[in-house]
Amino acid sequence: MSTSTTTTDLVETKKSGGLTAAASNYIDERTSISTAVKELGRKIFPDHWSFLLGEVALYSFVIILLSGSFLTFFFSAAMTPVEYDGSFVPLKGVEMSAAMSSSLDISFDIRGGLLMRQVHHWAALLFVAAIGLHMLRIYFTGAFRKPRELNWVIGFILFILAMAEGFTGYSLPDDLLSGNGLRIIDGMVKGIPLVGTWISYLLFGGEFPGEAIVGRLYSLHILLLPAIIVALIAMHLLFVVVHKHTQYPGAGRTNQNVVGYPVLPVYAAKAGGFFFIVFGVVMLMASLFTINPIWNYGPYDPSPVSAGTQPDWYIGFADGALRLIPPGLEFVWLDHTFSFNILIPLVALGLFILVVLIYPFIEAWVTGDKREHHILDRPRNAPTRTAIGAAGVTFYAALWATASSDIIATHFKVTMEGVIHTMQFLTLVGPFIAFFIAKRVCLALQKKDREIVLHGYESGRIVRLPGGEYIEVHQPIDEYERWKLVSYSDYKPLMLRPNAQGKITTGQKLRAGMSRWFFEDRIEPVGTTELERSHGDHH
Amino acid sequence: MAKDDNSGKDLAAADSSGVGQEGAPAGTVVVVRDAVANPGFPPHRPRVTDVQPSAERRAERTVYTLFYLSIVGSVFAIAAYMAFPIIPEDPGSVRTNNLFIGLGLSLALMAIGIGAVHWGKALMYDHEGIDERHPVRGSEDTRARAVEIFQEAGEESGIGRRTLIRNSLIGALIAFPLPAVVLFRGLGPQDDNPAALLSHTMWKKGTRLALDPTGTPIKASDITLGSAFHVIPEGLQDLEHGKLEEKAKAAVLLMRLKPEDLNELPERAGWSYDGIVAYSKICTHVGCPVALYEQQTHHLLCPCHQSQFDVSNHCEVIFGPAKRPLPQLPIAVDSEGYLIAQSDFTEPVGPSFWERN
Ligand code: HEM
Ligand code: FES
User: pTM of the entire structure?
Assistant: First the structure.
């Protein structure tokens, strides 16, 4: 029985197609790939420029993997001192580590080697930037709400791992700047109470700089961290498939549908094409612009340093935090040194990271909203969230700018102290100002939306009424445009009520307070009654 | 006052766009009773390429031209690899090699990318599709079955009943990674004590001060007023091992001020020689070399986080995150006129650490 069915199947497939069909059949019979194609092939992805940011991050990571693998074939992660004998004349005969020497060889003795180093480094800068912007998009549109909270956490961990990858990579060539970066890490680690001295000692395999650190960072850089990143990216994308992509509000779009283009063919063409565009742009930057010219810095030496050198951009915020600390914050107590000049930045940044990491859960707790959200918020329609985001961005930006305090001071010919004091002020007070402004702007924009819904756009056309009065003609908006402006969730503050035991818990009080802070200023979406009334006015 | 607006009449389980949530609570969301209804999809607007055959043909031409261009780019990159070799000791050749291989590859990549995107946008069927969403949670049946499976597994294994087995297993699982943690002790040499190592440098009584990086000993008479020298202990350059480690602790800045500009501490009387002072170059913040000396003000500036030290006042911190003054190296002059150290530093140099006191 079964034999006969198999033979007929075989005959049929043979008849029904050529090589492609035969190959597909061969694979499907061994992998059930048709199931995957059926499930995913026509999956719908909504289109919006801001959805490309995550793609840029993914593609730059692929570029990093490709270029990095090339580099591994030539790079030697050893700190054994050697005498440089490559093509770069000014450093000939200079003693340096094998790592530095091999990085110079990649740059000066291997055709296309410099190109790949620069592709790798430019892609790394782009990678971190793209994740950061992607994260801002998620935040400001509320895409982290249920059911996507965990994916926010995964994404944010990826952001941190990306910075770790960047830092470990930056340290590999063992040039002057990379060694100096490690020196700063060493100093910070030593400032950690109780264990700092030992951690530094173990990390560097003895005294700084030792001959171990580059090899150790290399294991992290090309093995451990990439493996974790790949696994987390896979999970991240799996969740995107499970949740299906969010979409912006628009006519016909609801919380129960996804409107967009199918994976095959349109999305594949656009996304696949976009990968090549990103790769092309990175390649172009690598061909035209030098990045990390280690040959100008020379090998690491604890003694010389040049002013005005900068770490890669994504490390700036941490460097800035160190600079902001006012003098004198270090104490000896009970025979031990407490380095608050290092602990304060460490703890402050740690808290900042923690708050960002758990923000989705905080907001969910405040709203009490347990529903799934697949329609994105326009940032103005969540004024407090947007304002918190603006405050966070300001805080980060102030720290980041502080990392260039010396350049600001020399460029604008102001004193170092003046710059630091200004930045201290901006870091502490700037977020509050940004919060206030952003919230007002959101509310104003919401009011404007209401105006447009109720009275239409200002057309710019002035007409004179029979009575001699001049008015500007308002152009009503069509129902599709209107829908974008009226379809949003409006929350109101939580009122306190005793629980079953007749008590008001502290948790409830806190939640009510937060809720009031979030939602006391709110602009309601326009309803039909109001809409009809306003139309009545016009007729 | 105490009243929960949550369950008030004007709030319902879901707002207009939030149906199908299995009755999940909507929190403090306000349900607009007279909410505007979703008007449904706007009519589809055809593209130029849909209505004008000439536009369609043009788009097609653009796409395949781009793909051919990409091939040209790839070939160009290969040709550039051969045509622009790296000539030893000629940095210009590195630049051209980099530039032309890179440009060829950029063209190859971007042309594929732009071509594919243009194909997708201008020529592929452009009606949007719609997928339905379902709640992420499994169906009630699935969930019930999952719970059941865990219950069955629990019963069949007896993990709930046999508490001794369970607890001892948890203990074993906690204990087994601990040896791995201990193994990491081997990351650093076994017998040294880091805090003790940090407290000593290469400087000893009588070590000559030498120029960094040449290692030439320095005579007091070479030090002119207002000048600053980067200094290492003599013999550092000849070390077989640990050159950088020693240098990271022993690097010193040597400066000569007018003796009357120097405000010396009484307990450090005799640590300088005729206005010449030597201070550790390693910042007491997190350890960068403090390399910038301002002659007029006698200030030292650390380029990393801008801590400033006042040389005329025993290098005390006048600004920035560092707390402690730079440690001073007591110096003297030997019989031949060379500058020598009177001893090692009297305190650990560089960044603070827990055991420092
Ligand atoms: C998110 C991931 C990664 C980031 C952000 C990153 C970043 C960096 C950076 C900034 C450098 C310094 C490059 C320079 O200017 O010399 C570097 C070096 C290096 N990276 Fe990566 N990298 C990543 C992943 C990888 C992977 C997966 C590999 C290998 C498979 C790799 C291999 C290398 C090698 C061999 C070097 C040393 C090359 C040299 O210095 O010339 N990287 N990386
Ligand atoms: S290391 Fe000198 S100020 Fe930070």
Answer: 0.93
